[in-house]
């Protein structure tokens, strides 16, 4: 068995697109990196979890894809998609939910625990006069009857759809009719709950330049809703990187991987490796702030119970959006890692030649540092400052093992 020399075990969180692959093409450094991360028996040397904002498939499918690409075994328990934390939102599981995205969205929703699921296609079929932008899909001849559906209680946005105009139109219809799109539009506000996964404005595939992500779809939906109603679209939860709830859940998976490795000492530090300063670096640093605040709160409670004067935490309070809409901490406070370090690679969205990271002292969005984060997140330049910048994932892993004093070979 591989025994670490360091007294403080650590875990690795890997982004996928732009770190391990570009579209369907593996990044050359990734295969060698993972050959070094497993022993002769194919067992991982440290806990590894893949944290992606993609969400158009099942965990099993993504694990099989990664296993093939990296030529090491990846189990579904090591894969965290943008929607994975929705398992914890049990208060919505018995509601009738409309799901938007692509891929097996109905199967994904049921797998997460949602029992009464309506897809955009099901909504189109039930109300055939709603989707009319594409003339070829308009009803021909006589007007088909409306089938009707049970009123929709909440909207779940898994990821960017293929037909943006269809999804935007029908989601707005649902929001403006309180879940019953055969009714007339109204002005009831706030609207029924909306939960969105994956806020990435941009992502990196094989093209030279970034592609629009689900975050761009959310910008369109928010703009349309406000243009029509005059009100801001509200989210019950924003899930996926960079929200804290995503890293909470990833840390739970790391803990489970550590148990499978036979570790008895809790993981003390996480290293998050990504290519997107706004999603990966911002999220890891935000979670690090959350961990520091949690430990500070614990210390203050202990000091207060011991009769010591309470200190004041000067760290900025996190918004509900940044927390992700869930306040649960997965596990006891004493088991939380001491911190989370962020490592930025240059094989994806970020490029040293094309981008300059915002400085720690800048407090405003400038033309050079346009804020690509979600509307409901703060622009804090310090959160976009990585702990380390390296060329690729192989260099990132070598750096981590060197930092922790572990042998890699």
Question: Would you give an account of this structure?
Answer:
The protein is an alpha/beta fold and 409 residues long. The protein folds into two domains: 10-82 and 244-304 and 315-354 and 366-404, Rossmann fold (3-Layer(aba) Sandwich); 85-238, Rossmann fold. The chain has helices at 28-37, 59-70, 105-112, 120-126, 164-176, 214-229, 244-260, 277-305, 320-323, 393-404, and strands at residues 10-14, 21-22, 25-26, 48-51, 79-80, 96-100, 116-119, 154-157, 194-197, 202-203, 211-212, 237-239, 269-274, 339-344, 388-389. Strands 5-4-1-13-14-15 form a six-stranded parallel beta sheet, sandwiched between helices. The protein is globular. The mean pLDDT is 88.
**Number of strand segments:** 15
- CATH architecture descriptor of the largest domain: 3-Layer(aba) Sandwich
List the domain count as a whole number: 2
Q: Structural class of the secondary elements?
A: alpha/beta
- Give the N-terminus to C-terminus distance in angstroms: 14 Å
Family: Belongs to the HAD-like hydrolase superfamily.
Pfam families: Hydrolase_6 (PF13344)
Protein name: Haloacid dehalogenase-like hydrolase domain-containing 5
Keywords: Signal
How is the topology of this model organized?
Layout: E1 10-14, E2 21-22, E3 25-26, H1 28-37, E4 48-51, H2 59-70, E5 79-80, E6 96-100, H3 105-112, E7 116-119, H4 120-126, E8 154-157, H5 164-176, E9 194-197, E10 202-203, E11 211-212, H6 214-229, E12 237-239, H7 244-260, E13 269-274, H8 277-305, H9 320-323, E14 339-344, E15 388-389, H10 393-404
Parallel strand pairs: 1-4, 1-13, 4-5, 6-7, 6-8, 8-9, 9-12, 13-14, 14-15
Antiparallel strand pairs: 2-3, 10-11
